[in-house]
Specification:
Blueprint: H1 2-9, H2 13-32, H3 41-60, H4 65-69, H5 71-91, E1 102-104, E2 107-109, H6 111-128, H7 137-156, H8 160-176, H9 181-202, H10 205-213, H11 226-237, H12 249-252, H13 264-297, H14 301-325, H15 343-371
Antiparallel strand pairs: 1-2
């Protein structure tokens, strides 16, 4: 019992508190939307939250050095996520126009959420084992292959939002792992070419229309620009204090599409206003600060690269979601971490937080042993 208590005492409770606040904000929003949908989003998200926290606690007990030492396990996790991505593309079972889910009974699993965390772990291990000769171009090429395989499969679904998150994970890790400037410049050229290929051959027509309508959504207010217009109306109508729980007209009258997932920020902003949005931003800021702090205290390159990749995972996704909800970025269709409905996303992110907690615990132990 003493060992368990000591373990939890070493948790980063500020980090966990920020996570709990964000999840609560999501649950409150889903509870408010209950009368706007017959699907039990709130009830299921409660179950997913419990499963996610169980994963968090379990992985907090697993020594993070296990991932650093077990190449087969890390590669296996990555290959499983790739296989699942191939399966959803080949099966062509679409939901909302995207082949991104595996249905098991009444449960939908989104493999890309597993792939995001698997890519973070894989790249952290890959570069931590090669930090002495990181300047070699072949490491950039190999890591690019690891990144491009799931990204290509995600674009085939097509899911542009998740593809952007995978890009952010890879870029953040390779830039801060010690790559030379000329390699980064070469990377920029390749990225432009890949973006051109994706635009020409991988993006669906409706996705291109969403991106082009971003400049002037009112050019097609009932078509490609509809979602952005309704989202901006919802965010703006919240004012300072918001309309109150259950009184969001845009979401409750179904003007705001997919208010429980892709536009949950707009639904939240409409009911809680500037004050609620400020509280959400503060929670994300605390989360980022604690993640950075854990990274700074980390004792080895694997943990630092994992922290960096995981931070890119969460905050690039949050940035894209909030940006498109506020009309400052194109509509790509992506959830808000911790807040949007989605079991795959919530469980994978909370599992990643569990690994983060273990890194923090062992960093603290390392400091105490060194001081002793």
């Amino acid at each position: 019992m003493q060992t368990f208590l000591e373990h939890f005492r070493r948790f980063d409770w500020f980090l966990l508190g920020a996570v709990a606040v964000l999840i609560t904000m999501g649950l409150v929003t889903l509870f408010s939307l209950r009368d706007a949908s017959t699907f039990p989003f709130f009830e299921r998200q409660l179950v997913w939250s419990a499963i996610g926290f169980a994963a968090l606690v379990s992985l907090s007990f697993l020594d993070f050095r296990f991932f650093r030492a077990q190449s087969g396990v890390v590669l296996g996790l990555y290959l499983i996520s790739v296989f699942l991505l191939i399966f959803v593309v080949v099966s062509k079972v679409t939901f909302r126009g995207i082949s991104a889910w595996i249905q098991i009974g009444n449960i939908f699993i989104q493999p890309v959420e597993i792939a995001k965390l698997a890519l973070v772990i894989l790249l952290a291990k890959f570069f931590s084992n090669r930090h002495i000769e990181i300047y070699r171009i072949r490491h950039l090429i190999v890591s690019g292959i690891y990144f491009l395989i799931p990204t290509f499969l995600v674009l085939l679904q097509p899911d542009l939002g998740s593809a952007l998150v995978l890009v952010a994970i890879w870029l953040s890790i390779i830039i801060f792992s010690g790559m030379k400037l000329r390699h980064i410049f070469l990377l920029g050229i390749v990225s432009v070419l890949v973006a051109g290929i994706a635009w020409s051959f991988l993006l669906a027509p409706y996705q291109k229309a969403r991106i082009t309508s971003f400049v002037n959504p009112y050019s097609d207010p009932k078509g490609a620009g509809y979602q952005m217009i309704q989202s901006m109306i919802a965010v703006g109508s919240g004012g300072v204090w918001g309309k109150g729980l259950g009184y969001g007209s845009q979401s409750h009258l179904n003007f705001l599409p997919e208010a429980e997932t892709d536009f949950v920020f707009a639904a939240f902003a409409e009911e809680w206003g500037f004050v609620g949005v400020s509280a959400m931003f503060f929670s994300f800021l605390v989360l980022l600060a604690r993640i950075i702090w854990i990274g700074m205290k980390s004792s080895d390159s694997f943990s630092r690269l994992y922290v960096l990749g995981f931070a890119a995972f969460i905050f690039s996704q949050a940035f894209v979601h909030i940006g498109m909800n506020m009309g400052v970025m194109p509509i790509t269709g992506i959830t808000l971490p911790f807040v949007s409905y989605g079991g795959s996303s919530l469980v994978s992110i909370l599992a990643g937080i569990g690994i983060l907690q273990n890194i923090k615990i062992h960093s603290r132990k390392h400091i105490e042993e060194r001081e002793f």
